[in-house]
Amino acid sequence: MDLKKIFIIYRKEMLDLLRDKRTVITSVVIPIVLYPLIMIGFSSLMIRQETKLEQQFVDIYLQDKSVTEISSRIVDSLQTMDYVNIYYESEDYLELIQQDILHAAITISDTLGATGYELFKITITYNEAKEMSKMAYSKLRNILLEIETGLVGERLSAIQIDEEILDAIEIKADNVAPPEQMLGFIVGKILPYLLIVLTLSGGAVVASDLVAGEKERGTLETILVSAARRIELVIGKYLTIITISLITVFLNLFSMFFSFKHLMTQSGVDTSSVQLPLSNFGLILIAMLPLVTLLAAILLSISTYARNIKEAQSYQMPIIFAGMMLAMISMLPGFELTLGFALLPIINFALLFKNIMMGSFNGLHFAVVVGSTLILDILAIYVSIYLFNKESILFRTAEEDKTLKFWGKEKSNVFTSQFIVIFFVVMLLLLFYIGGSWQSKDLMEGLVKTQIFIILLPTILVLRISKNNLPQVLRLNKTRPSNYLMVLLMAVPALLTAIGIGNVINYFFPVSETYLKSMQELVGLEQKSIWMALLVIGILPGICEETMFRGYIINGFTKNGFWKAIIVSGILFGIFHLDPFRLLPASILGFYLGYLTLKTNSIFPAMLAHFSNNSLAIILGNYADKIPVLKNIFQDDQISIWYSIIALIIFIVLLRSFHKQNRTEELNFE
Amino acid sequence: MIKVDKLSKKFPQKEKDFYAVNELSFTADKGEIVVLLGVNGAGKTTTMRMLSTVLKPSSGTATVEGFDIRNKAQQVRSRLGFLSGDTGLYSRLTPREIITYFARLYDVRDNIIRERIMELSDVLDMGSFLDKKIDLLSTGMKQKVSIARSIIHDPPVMILDEPTAGLDILTARNIVEFIHKCKNQGKCVLFSTHIMREAERIADRIVMIHEGRILAEGSWSDFKKDTGLRDLDDIFIHYVNSTSEEEVSDGS
Ligand SMILES: Nc1ncnc2c1ncn2[C@@H]1O[C@H](COP(=O)(O)OP(=O)(O)OP(=O)(O)O)[C@@H](O)[C@H]1O
Ligand SMILES: [Mg+2]
After folding, report:
1. Radius of gyration, alpha carbons of chain A
2. ipTM strictly over 0.95?
3. What is the pLDDT along chain B (252 residues), one digit of tens a residue?
4. What SS3 string covers chain B?
């Protein structure tokens, strides 16, 4: 490996990219322009609103019942106020204030205090429900307090006492959370998420251009035959992605920070204490470098694997989405960095970032985060170099490109992996935005709508429009009755095994209590009937999710073989649950369901298995502490490890006999 | 010089592996232009890609300047100027930047690069567009840049895959003349085309290939003597037919 060559390659790639409008716009112009625009627009809107209120005249009714020398002095001061109209006569001011025609009324009367001094009683009548009235009140109150201070001062000096006698207690608000920690808390939640997403999206544009783009334009072969070694090419390109990602991230952060500061000063908030904790920035940078390089290496591998830019972009989408999901952990309440989490890429960075910002991080964790990311990073670069050396990858002939034109006359191919990935990502976005908002309005109704309109209907629609034979594609085939029996028999040990696996995962990667509570509230059945729950959580997913994953998606991968189809569709199924902690358990369930489908060449066993799994989970969740046998097995929601192992053994025995009973059917139906 | 020895390349296919190149053997010497002649899909590009080490042979081997393409890829590549048929150029860079980039990858020193660029720009008549972006150039201009790019390091062996495809006669002739000059400087040139006339004008020796195998090898006068035909196309078709007859008789 020759460093000089790497530098030559790096310099050329940078020159090439900086002349590319698309790259410059996404990584330089947008961050510089976008945030200030948003913030300035926002702040000027706020200021305008405020000044508008303050500069409107308020109408006040004034009644001076005292008519002494001092009360007329008070009236005089009131008359000097800006933006105030004072009326001295009013028929029914109470009525008028209620109608917001008059904004406040002020009545002055006086009595003699116990010590012989005059005491002015001033009543301010106003309407708390009205903005203008509230403002009139606070204006009046402020000026009256000022007058009071003046009067008290006069009285004290009349009897030759220093005004300072009044200052016996001085109250100073001192928030125990130092400003750095407060800011760190806010910044620690949102910044890590932004950093990860920005790094990914900044790198993605560049990465797709660097290898897939060269393939598309026919320049790849020219550098492959040049005297540069493959490893030099990979590293030169890899450094380019890292550089552009870092530029994007820094520009975004700086622009965001200064815009934020601008907003604060404009709105009159004291910003002297608002500083990004600069001393910690070095640490964040050190922690970030391996992450940026890991993401760059992954993006580079994708770009090398893809045949053209379009394909690279469609493969990038799920990666970006997964990155966003993992990064979101920084926004969930109560998660703390443990050694287990420190091993999980992206999640570890998000949690470490929060700790560094709060000034409370642990050196060991820091080292584990950086070290484990670096190891993955090296693996990812190795994959890139491997792909770069594989001629079957570099010289792949393009698959026929009719994937997106599936509404033509003849039956067309919606089973290419590229089309399925796009379909999956679109479904994921729908689920996230539309399904999420439905479910937050009304959970049960939202779940029903999600299953039917986001999961089932689009799948059917794609298959119908592309002129496929639905019963055949979806594998609505009969299978022997004993298979259903076997599936039912396996349901209980399968669930117990799954719970056991869940407990093991939870042991290494503890889920925070607050998070668990909020999840439990979501699935809690307090007011809902168990039948409703069985329908919504048992039957509907059994039909709808199976149709999407085992009916459609799995078929996109059967050409790669029995097991690959099961694994890929299972992982997609896991990702579809949009929860990093259910990724693994849901993927394993997905493997099992995929296996049942391909093995029997029928979707019905998987539907039954899915239904019985979810239903059993509901029943256990609600009755575990009411039925004595179950009470024995579950203690504090934990299943004893021995029961899990026994369940696993039973499950394996049953699965083996199931496997022997069924011969693998022909995979492809075309 | 190039020595090709029973070189084969098979691409895995669903039913049966497909041989794009099948036990090809020939040589090309210093100061010689050898033309690979064959129809579309004959295996010319695949052969040249193996010689330039971007594809690995399935069996057989070849040497370039004495270095084996299978295990001395680095040495082979630095002694080779390779121009592939559907070559692309970086559209946002200028010819000078591209040529300099490749020259540096070949470890040519910067002052020599400048000299070479002037030299090549003279011969290929590129002076007027050396500093324009590639985007703005015509097909012929781009092809000249590609040629300059591939031989900037003054390699002893040149492999040119259809360098005149898509060019007008003037530009094509220009390039053919240039290749002649290179030959006269003692370079070994392997040149592919499916245009018979071009093959006739430029070749010292012709290797006719069809479906990955050699049909015939020699100069045009050899071929004319051998077949008794005068038209180039007729000669080519004669050889194609004679092999398919052989296959038929083999099969019976
Ligand atoms: N990467 C590849 N994978 C599978 N088959 C390939 C690959 N590259 C080439 N082929 C096949 O090998 C055969 C020979 O191709 P090649 O490009 O060498 O022909 P050629 O003589 O250069 O043709 P042309 O005159 O059209 O350029 C063709 O049938 C082609 O389809
Ligand atoms: Mg070719």
Report:
1. 34
2. no
3. 899 999 999 887 766 788 999 999 999 999 999 999 988 889 999 999 999 998 999 999 999 999 999 999 999 999 999 998 777 899 999 999 999 999 999 999 999 999 999 999 988 889 999 999 999 999 889 989 999 999 999 999 999 999 888 788 888 888 888 899 999 999 999 999 888 888 888 899 999 999 999 988 988 888 888 888 888 888 888 888 887 666 555 544
4. CEEEEEEEEEECCCCCCEEEEEEEEEEECCCEEEEEECCCCCCHHHHHHHHCCCCCCCEEEEEECCEECCCCHHHHHHCEEEECCCCCCCCCCCHHHHHHHHHHHCCCCHHHHHHHHHHHHHHCCCHHHCCCCHHHCCHHHHHHHHHHHHHCCCCCEEEEECCCCCCCHHHHHHHHHHHHHHHHCCCEEEEEECCHHHHHHHCCEEEEEECCEEEEEECHHHHHHHHCCCCHHHHHHHHHHHHHHHHHHHHC
Q: At what angle do helices A363-389 and A347-357 cross, to 10 degrees?
A: 150
pTM above the 0.80 mark? no
Whether the CB of A15 is below 8 Å from some CB of chain B: the reply is yes
Query: Is A115 touching B (CB cutoff 8 A)?
Result: no
Sequence ranges of the domains in chain B: 2-79+156-251, 88-154
* Cα A604 to averaged position of ligand 2 atoms, centre (Å): 51
B residues 86-115 near A, CB within 8 Å? 86-93, 97, 101-102, 104-107
- Chain A residues near residue B134 by CB distance under 8 angstroms: none
Q: Shortest CB distance from B104 goes to which of A8, A19, A394?
A: A8
Interface test with A, best of B104, B150, B157, B161 (most A CBs within 10 A): B104
A217: contact with B, CB 8 A cutoff: yes
Please tell me if the CB atom of residue B44 comes closer than 6 angstroms to any atom of ligand 1: yes
Count chain A–chain B contacts defined by CB atoms under 8 A.
68
Cβ–ligand 1 contact at B165 (below 6 Å):
no
Question: Is B140 touching ligand 1 by the criterion CB < 6 Å?
Answer: no
Q: What residue's CA is closest to ligand 1, atom 6?
A: B11
A227 to chain B, any CB pair closer than 8 A? The answer is yes
Which residue has its alpha carbon closest to ligand 1 atom 17? Answer: B45
CATH topology of domain B2-79+156-251: Rossmann fold (3.40.50)
Residues 6+ apart with CB under 8 A from A294: A345, A373, A376, A377, A380
Cβ(B208)–Cβ(B215) below 8 Å: yes
Q: Would you call A227 and B107 a contact, using CB atoms and an 8 Å cutoff? A: yes
Cα–Cα separations (whole angstroms), residue A420 to A318, A416, A451: 11, 6, 19
